[in-house]
Amino acid sequence: MVVNCVYARTGLVFSPMSSLEFKHRESWPQSVSIYVDVANYSDSGPVSFGLTVQDAPGNTIYEFAETLEVKGLSEAHYFGVKKALILAQEKGVQDLTIASRSESLIQELSRAVDLTSESLRGVFEDCKVLILTFKTVLLESAKDSGHQRANELAKMVFDQ
Question: What's the pLDDT tens digit per position in 48-71?
């Protein structure tokens, strides 16, 4: 099912171009790791994000990918993280780890550096509000197979 997302702070209503969803388990544990990555096929074309949700032992419980009409990879990373936060909140997750290849996103959301692009302000603020709804959120650099699968999903959604 494709649902329009409203990005409240920007007033932007966004309709995804296409999406993929694989549910491996209906219920989620209270602690999960979500790996987010992005892909694009040209500098002027659409971008996509993919995400993989794993439980503590590393079992994949959910996968999702979506193409976006935005042009920048930074925007796609932020929209992917926002989607991850919304999904985790809906599933009752308390302790969340989000892993992304975007070092700037990790540093910006961790408040280690100021936001580098004002065009990201709305989705950045939305992510910050969502982060506050969890008991713990760890933002880290993606380094393992969860990240690789998220990247595969981001590429796969273009082939739909």
Answer: 999 999 999 999 999 999 988 876
